[in-house]
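Deviation from plan, reported transparently: pyridoxal-5'-phosphate complex.
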Amino acid sequence: MTPVAPALEGPAMPMLAAAAEEIPLAGWTREMKQSPLRDILALLQRPGLLSFALGVPAAELFPVAAYARAARHVLRTDPEALQYGLPLRRLKSHVVGLMARRGVACTEAEVFITSGAQHAMSLLGQLLVAPGATVVTEEMAYDGMLNALRPLQPRVLTVPSDVAAGMDVGALEALLESGERPALVYAIPEGHNPLGASMPADARRRLVEAAARHGVPVIEDDAYGLLGYDDAPAPALRALDPRWTLYVGSFSKIMAPALRAGWIVAPEPLVQRLSILKQGSDLDVCSFAQRTLAAFLDREDVDAHLARLREVYGARRDAMLAALAAHFPAEARWSCPRAGMFAWVQVPGADTTALLRRAVEEAGVAFVPGRAFCAAGGTRGGDALRLNFSRPSVDQIHDGIRRLAGVLAPRGAAGIRPPFLTTTSLAP
Ligand SMILES: Cc1ncc(COP(=O)(O)O)c(C=O)c1O
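Because the crystal trials were delayed, the predicted structure below was used instead.
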């Protein structure tokens, strides 16, 4: 028998490439660009590189042994473990428990299991955004929501981001007062990616009130909501008003991203619609992962697990803040993250996009330039860096920040200075 794969690698390739050029693509896919975050992934392949770049959990904190026990248990006892299956009720019941830890009272019928938060945002986008509709995001935000919406080609409006408090809710209120009726507002109130900001309680209340007053759904991306380091994180938006908030949660940051499991909390009638919608792209969220996660949560102490993550990541957050104060130039300012995995650092006058290559080549350290997060082709964040503190160890953080500072600029005169960014909008 002739193997198929080798034939594809041979002289047939130019012909295949020519054919690909001629295949008529959907118009919007011609405009597609790779996310800058994906481009940075390529840079990170260098051996020995110390990365502060991506929002990845620390692999040494994955509960490998307990998860292996749960997987073995499922395979031994559940004949349906590898079969197509309905969304697992036991997992939904655990999600209800996790939501209570975010101050949200919900029922299993309001929980919709997805293959991660990204999948959740894609489905919610399809559910809410009609052709030509308007959506609102922050000028600085995780680009996953806009990526998910791209096939729908919405009109994108942005509101300013505040480096200390996240979304500028006053600007959103003004937009809605002006008569705009977006199909959705995308918000990351806790452990903001990339700013590391947590929205103050008052801003949260104003946001849900404005959404209810104008009848606009808010997608609350709470991927980092269970990772709060100081006092208990403020309750989720959905805890304040469930009517217009569609909540998105994820097991990626608290368990492991490879499980590809997350959830939506939404009113029950929308859950039924989501279920029909999902069948078009994904017959089942991996039923084995659902069962194994549920078995893990049945048997293990999830609060002890979360406490361990908070303890280790909290210490790394503290190490990063201390290292920035010790090594970064005197004019630099940074956020003091209460939750999540990122610190946002502004270095006035720096061009952090140009700096990245030098940082990789000269200091063996990587980060994400702030501009990568600027929505809708904007240019803000050019003097900023997003630094991840969850993955590197405390020692690596001290060493890496020192090396990075060496590439940035020689340290200015030491002295006492207020390092934390205060409430300053990134808008002009
Ligand atoms: C704010 C935010 N939302 C959603 C996601 C996607 O997470 P998931 O792995 O659950 O798809 C990420 C991933 O980094 C994120 O930072």
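The first helix runs from residue 4 to 9. We consider this an acceptable substitute for the interim report.
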